[in-house]
UniProtKB/TrEMBL annotation:
Keywords, sorted A to Z: Cell membrane, Membrane, Transmembrane, Transmembrane helix
Transmembrane regions listed in the UniProt entry: 111-130, 264-285
UniProt xrefs under InterPro entries: T2SS_GspF_dom
Keyword Transport in record: no
PANTHER family per the UniProt record, alphabetical: INTEGRAL MEMBRANE PROTEIN-RELATED, PILUS ASSEMBLY PROTEIN
Name listed for the protein in its UniProt record: Type II secretion system F family protein
Coiled-coil zones: none
Location relative to the cell: Cell membrane
Pfam families hit by this protein: T2SSF
Organism encoding this protein: Paenibacillus polygoni
Domain of life per record: Bacteria
Keyword Manganese belongs to the record: no
Length: 289
């Protein structure tokens, strides 16, 4: 078993070294795509080549679709395929490291437990990463939905005071210049697109696609349909939309509160059992005596 595990470690390491020689230059541009949350980018190149060689995308279309859909909702549609390939490579890296770690653990423990744990982690970790990605997307959408009514309320006040929609959006965004909130990150990018020559409609549509939230799409459609007319009709439509979004924000806040209270049930039960044991143990001990 020691010899087999030593061979596994050596083969995995040797494969990466040999594959990295040819893949490093081939996928250099792909590794230059900006994407946060990747910890092992320097190890990606051989695994990107492996993904293409085994035709992973075609063989597992549903899994790849879920990954790409979540990637586009979390990071935007730009370079969606490239970011999906980087995320898949990150999954493969974690599985490879789990197998290496399991083989090394077996050498140390002199038993099958290490390699068994390594194989199990190599299967579980990719699905755990995918679940974590879905949770991040969900939290991002909730953050946008929670902030959008407040942003829209400010825009309504400024437009009602005589500002144009563009100036109102720029003014509200500049006041949150240092914020890393996902809504204001996308708004700053939209303003940058205006300054670089994009039309108001194009920039607004791209903003809606990047956010990937239904309420933002409704906001975008309302603005694009009414901003040319201006006047009281435009302000009234924005106020009505603001009222609807505030109701959705209240509903989301109630849901979050219910989820938080349900998460506290298990710790409270544990604390209750500990207290019962602490209070009841001396009584039982006295009865036995």
């Amino acid at each position: 078993m020691v010899i087999i595990c030593s061979m596994i470690v050596a083969l995995l390491a040797l494969w990466w070294i040999l594959a990295n020689r040819t893949a490093k230059t081939r996928y250099q541009k792909l590794n230059q795509v900006e994407m946060t949350g990747l910890r092992f980018r320097k190890l990606h190149a051989p695994f990107i080549g492996l993904i293409e060689r085994i035709d992973f995308v075609r063989k597992f279309p549903m899994f790849v679709y879920r990954v790409q859909h979540s990637i586009q909702r979390a990071y935007g549609p730009k370079y969606g395929h490239e970011k999906m390939m980087l995320y898949l490579a990150e999954m493969f890296v974690y599985s490879w490291l789990a197998l290496m770690g399991g083989a090394v653990m077996t050498l140390w423990l002199h038993g099958l437990m290490g390699i068994a744990i390594g194989c199990m982690l190599a299967i579980i970790i990719p699905f755990a990463q995918l679940k974590d990605l879905h949770e991040k997307v969900k939290l991002r959408e909730q953050d946008i939905l929670m902030e959008l009514p407040e942003f829209l309320n400010k825009v309504v006040l400024l437009v009602g005071a005589g500002e144009t929609v563009q100036k109102a959006i720029i003014h509200c965004t500049e006041r949150k210049q240092s914020s890393d909130h996902p809504l204001y990150i996308e708004l700053r990018q939209m303003i940058a697109e205006w300054n670089s020559g994009f039309s108001f409609q194009q920039a607004f549509e791209q903003f809606s696609k990047r956010c990937g939230v239904q309420e933002v799409s409704i906001f975008t459609t309302t603005v694009l349909l009414n901003f040319r007319r201006g006047g009281n009709d435009f302000v009234l439509s924005l106020r009505e939309l603001s009222r609807v979004l505030w109701e959705k924000r209240k509903s989301l806040s109630r849901t979050k509160g219910e989820q938080a209270s349900s998460k506290l049930v298990f710790p409270m039960v544990v604390i209750f059992l500990v207290i019962v044991i602490m209070v009841g143990a001396p009584s039982f001990m006295t009865m036995n005596l």
